[in-house]
Amino acid sequence: MTWTKKDRMHNTDWQITLRKFLGRKDGEKKGPENGMRDEKDEDDEMEEFTKLYKEWKGLGDNFSNVPTLFTKLPSDKDPLLLKLREESRAVFLQRRSRELLDNDELQKLWFLLDKNHTPPLHGEEQMISYQDFLLVAAEAGSKCQPFFQASVFSKLMQNDPFGRVPIMQFFNYVMRKVWLHQTRIGLSLYDVAGQGYLKESDLENYILELIPTLPQLSGLERTFYSFYVCTAVRKFFFFLDPLRTGRIKIQDVLACSFLDDLLELRDEDLSKELQESNWFSAPSALRVYGQYLNLDKDRNGMLSKQELARYGTGTLTDVFLDRVFQECLTYEGEMDYKTYLDFVLAMENRREPQALRYLFRILDVQHRGHLNVFSLNFFFRAIQEQMKLHGQEPVSFQDVNDEIFDMVKPADPLKLTLQDLINSGKGDTVVSILIDLNDFWTYENREYLVPDLSEQEGASS
């Protein structure tokens, strides 16, 4: 700590004052017999010392001059502070954006890598040694320096006998990093609170403004934009916000593959097969919305339990559908498009933990956090009833129950938890045979169906 002349003078002043005070108190309060002071004298001294110390340090009684460690975010009642914060964040993000490599700088980097590659070729790939890697770093400029680290080079090393790395692999690494930073900045512009999260409305605005930049969505009617945005946003929130907090981390958005799928629609030559398998493509969005309209027989924009019963092959059990409408958000007993999207995402992705979480909540009739014999029997009775209606011989519940527990091998032999289903890798099978007659029939006859399929494949080849 550096002491100024003023500090030393101030320090001396309060020491002299305190010494005089103690001397005065000593003279006034000494006991005549033993010269000792009582506890009250010591309390007075401490009080005076504290007062003088605060004055010297410039501290008030409430320590108002101590810097705060936490500052509240401005509220809606402070529009000027909100605007100031918003503008400050925008300036900060613009500055960060300027620090990223632009297209010209990326082209220059590729030129330098190509020029300084280290012979010989590895197959058809150009390679670069660490010495040449450092030469490129010296010429590439300050923006590129974070990429030219020894740790990066070592991560990209493969089994090259000369200890080199492929220049294409390194360049793709740089491109990926630049893209991630650009996307992070782009998403952060929609983070109104500035806390690293996106609410549904934030992500909706981001995707809505992204649509015109995606050639594969150029054919969408503007009247369908709101339905498309809702369809796209639900996938992000279904998988990244399974606890329904109403917000998702920007970091999680970047870490998942959904943005890659969405931005894949920039490719004007995207094949029909890739479009159909991409949830965010126009054909996929129109398919899901078309199914919803087809199910909505009374054309009121909502789905009743009877209308949802026609979903898929129309073989979902009434017991399962009752539970769906009990556990999911409905409006006067009917399901809207957003709730339907969650249902579709769960049914089409039953292998995924988030989908199993959704379906497990429906199967957990007793809300105990696990499934027991009662829960399994509750749902399987509906399968047995459907089998009777179709003239099929009902299967014994005990046989099915034993098979389920053998498949899952739960930690507790008397109950199945969500984690048990996820860990087993058979959670989708368990759910399917409890809620859908067609899926149960397919599972029961799997031994006969597999040979048929193999025979068909052999005949086609």
Automatic annotation (TrEMBL):
One GO term of the biological process aspect? microtubule cytoskeleton organization
InterPro entries listed in its UniProt record:
EF-hand-dom_pair, EF_Hand_1_Ca_BS, PPP2R3C
Q: Which UniProt keywords apply?
A: Calcium, Cytoplasm, Metal-binding, Nucleus, Repeat
Broad class of the protein's primary localization: cytoplasm
Provide the Gene Ontology terms for cellular component: centrosome; cytoplasm; nucleus; spindle
Ranges annotated as biased composition (Basic and acidic residues): 24-39
Q: Does the keyword Hydrolase apply?
A: no
* Cellular localization per UniProt: Cytoplasm; Nucleus
Top-rank lineage group of the source organism:
Eukaryota
GO MF term (any one): metal ion binding
Stretch list, region Disordered: 24-46
According to UniProt, the name of this protein is Serine/threonine-protein phosphatase 2A regulatory subunit B'' subunit gamma
